[in-house]
Amino acid sequence: MAMEHAQRACEILKKVSPDEEETPDFASSLLPPHYVKLKVNKPCGSLCGKRIDVEESSLTQCECNPDEEDPCGPYSQCLNRMLLTECGPTCRAGERCNNRAFEKRLYPKLVPYRTPQRGWGLKTLEDIKAGQFVIEYVGELIDEEEFKRRMQRKYEIRDENYYFLTLDNERMIDAGPKGNLARFMNHCCEPNCETQKWTVLGDVRVGLFAMRDIPANSEVTFNYNLQCAGIEKKQCLCGAKRCSGYIGAKPKQSEQPKKKKDVTKRTYKKRKVEYSPTVRPKPVKRQTSRSNPKELTEIEKDLLIIKLATSGMSSDSDCSGRFSVDSAKETKAMKRKRDRISPEDLYNGLSPNNKRFKEDD
User: Fold this and answer.
1) In its keyword annotation, does this UniProt entry include S-adenosyl-L-methionine (predicted)?
2) What is the pTM for the complete model shown?
């Protein structure tokens, strides 16, 4: 172990220019801070001794075909994987099961490194695909009281490095004094990893999964979603385009260019007309034109012909007496003529009889 730290320190010293002076702070920054390495979560305080014992028969069995190319894999229809639950040792796929990343600790090759402005970080030496399991967040399991005690201690010594992560309503993970490489992961407002809570052998555990493809030699980050217990906020130096400026604050929304309104184009708004069943619409009156009058009935035609005939006579008694006698004889002739008279001529007073009466006058 000491040889590994010494080799790491030599590599960092080679990158330092000879003009830079070595100070105690610089020497201490050559190696990551000391911590006790853990492979699984370790209960502490009131949680010490509490262990979840699960019978193998109670574990959910998936229905994956063990003869498939990738049984229980990310592209399979594994029921346990859909429910964020790891398969147990009794899975039908056996050793070919691809849904036991937590238990087998299938991590890519990760290494801590010194960042320019944000202290120590964690980067990958291998290409990571989107959705791939990166690492489990491991540390000491503590309760609410122990969390408050440790926070008070950090406040007294002015330690601003926090490694707490909520597991459930009663437990929290503290990866500060004891943990694994996940403790070196920095915060980012646009991270490439996210936390997911999985059920592993009946207990809840937190894992970090890639949100997108991560090339080799890239830093792996996740969003802390920090809830500030004090008044002061911690400044964020992630350098993302949508950086909020403070750890725990929401990232800034990407500004989209506003669309300019077209002045030449008119816009019309539809008027909403509400229909009321109690109010009846008024009937629309149809306008009749003189050019298309109504058809006259037989009685109306007879009365109109008589009116036109009498309007052309003189006021003498002989004429009036003659009309009364001769009108009976001319009835059949008038009936034949009225069929040839159009309604337009009757309205305009231009019937053949009316013309004849005007000539006689």
Assistant:
1) yes
2) 0.63
